[in-house]
Amino acid sequence: MRKLLLSFIVFLLGSHVFAQTKITLKSADGKLIFLFWLSKENPVYQLIYNGKALVDESGLGLDFKETGAFGPGLKLGKPVFTNVDEHYELVVGKAKNVHHVHRQVLIPLLETTGAKRKINLVARAFDEGIAFRYEFPDQSNWKEYTLTDENTSFNLAGNPKVTSLLFDNYTSSHEGLYQKQQLSHVPEKKLMDIPALFEFADHVFLAITEANLRDYAGMYLSKKNDVLKSQLSPLPGQREIKVKAVLPHRTPWRVMLVSDRVGKLIESNVLTSLNEPSQTTDFSWLKPGKTSFHWWNGDVTPDTTFSPGANFETNKYYIDFCARNHIEYHSVIGYGGFAWYPTNGPGYGDPGSYSDVTKSVPSLDMQQICDYAKQKGVGIHVWVHWKALYPQLEAAFTQFEKWGIKGMMVDFMDRDDQEMVKIQEQILSRAVAHKLFIQFHGSFKPTGLSRTYPNEFTREGTYNYENNKWRETGISPEHDMDIAFTRLLAGASDYHLGGFRAVKPDEFKTHYTRPMMIGTRCHMLAMYVVMESYLHMVADYPEAYEGQPGFEFLQKVPTNWDETKVLDATIGESLTIARRKEKKWYVGTINSSSAKALKIGLDFLNDGSFQAEIFSDAPDSSENPNHLTKKVQQVKKGGFLEINLAPGGGQVVIISPKSE
């Protein structure tokens, strides 16, 4: 009897240790609840939205090479709750002034045996999402770590529909066609790229991504036994070690954006709110804008007396075009696959064993090009392979600043391991010091770091219109829609915009020079509003634009915004986004391959009268997709825009106060 009683007492004591009271963190509006507690095996969390579990009991933990798993047998320290009401201004972004209210809890987790390490879990609750991360405070018995696995899991309730990219390995430019399927059908062992979008049966939407990725490995998701678990990109040359760090240290934020209105996920500024302000206060030199990019059109030049190539005359042709048409930048790339700088590599994608980006090839005088462009009011930015740039980073940036270059596309990065993440931040940091902007290509998604480094203008990590140069069926309007509802949630996306040769899908052919487009001319115009990027390309050649219907919109549309509102959004069908710059609103609508009519409310306008300049699909756009109509009409708050969309169609509207 005594043994039974003693066993019962031990059971009760053990239950008390591991059946802790749940720590509860609520969003300000009370709709989102983050619950946290300790089980015997590991820390656990749950996510509730409007009274229903979106994420059921999900384990957390970390595995270290030196000291094993951090998760079993922990005890809680005293949680610290704080309320934050934050106002801040973005230099570049979908909004200029951001106001965020969030609630935070810091939960100390302490090992009771062994190394007795301490890790804090910090969670934040916003009205549109939950974020958490692991923090490693300075401690006397633990100085550094080697991480082999991060065991963050997402045990999603029910069987939501997933829109995601799936990869076989970590070496990736993060480009592909999105797959749509129920979570139960997602194959195991595949790497699910993020952001990934999940739609639940009651039309609640959840997107998983990460924020503030610095000095850490990029995260993917992988399904095992119907539960999604974090997978970190390993350091090069091996597969075991993911992160090496010295304390104090911290992981990126694991972010779950949530709403019953999918457009709210696009509007959200949670990712920038999870990043630190810039340490640089003067960005008066930084000018978002649009740029030429002649590689996309096939390096087209007119039939003139000069020979096209990596020379002054070819670049002058595009600089003059930019100057005539209010396009802020011209890209100096090279010509025909060969770079503007000396290299023994066989093409753009291979820097060879020798490259020197502090010099230009003999046929091209970079100082002459920069001086001429400056006279014309055009900025110069250059393309570089990252392996050619990085070994001589400081010397290159010093020379770029001396020439008068304003920024660069850094290409072919194709990794998101800790080493590459640190390289990219180093490039951004040194570029700020030399007043240069950066456009990352062949790169992973953004994580809100444009708040800390506003000179990060845009990133690729997007399967975009460059693929029309070689993909047999071209990029479809449905793919544009998939990008907007997934990749766009992470931030700016470089999409090779501006193709002005639209054809019907059955007439599409691959053209490396003068690529064709699927979707109407107005669909292309609308992409400049729908897609977020602070350096949109105007990637076709001058004669493709000048005198063409709709080009005047490209001359006017900004790339940096004061406010963003999603007016209408149906996944896979249509999307309407309104973005404000000063007193003008720019409204863009893109459509799938099925014709439809929409009625878009104008309740976002202030009181007063406004003039709307409307570019719409023409009545015959289904047969002649380059055709469009233009009209001007008066609109006001409480009114509507009537939109008739051709298959693959679109519409753009510039709404100005009537007094202007």
Automatic annotation (TrEMBL):
Cofactor: Ca(2+)
Gene3D superfamilies: 2.70.98.10, Aldolase class I, Golgi alpha-mannosidase II
Domain Glycosyl-hydrolase 97 catalytic: start-end pairs: 295-461
Keyword Signal appears in the UniProt entry: yes
Annotated EC: 3.2.1.20
Domain Glycosyl-hydrolase 97 N-terminal: 25-277
Pfam families membership: GH97_C (PF14509), GH97_N (PF14508), Glyco_hydro_97 (PF10566)
Boundaries of every Glycosyl-hydrolase 97 C-terminal oligomerisation domain copy: 560-655
Gene Ontology MF annotations: alpha-1,4-glucosidase activity
Annotated signal peptide: 1-19
Enzyme class: hydrolase
Keywords: Calcium, Glycosidase, Hydrolase, Signal
Subunit structure as annotated in this protein's UniProt entry: Monomer.
Record-given protein name: Alpha-glucosidase
Organism, scientific name: Dyadobacter arcticus
Lineage: Bacteria, Pseudomonadati, Bacteroidota, Cytophagia, Cytophagales
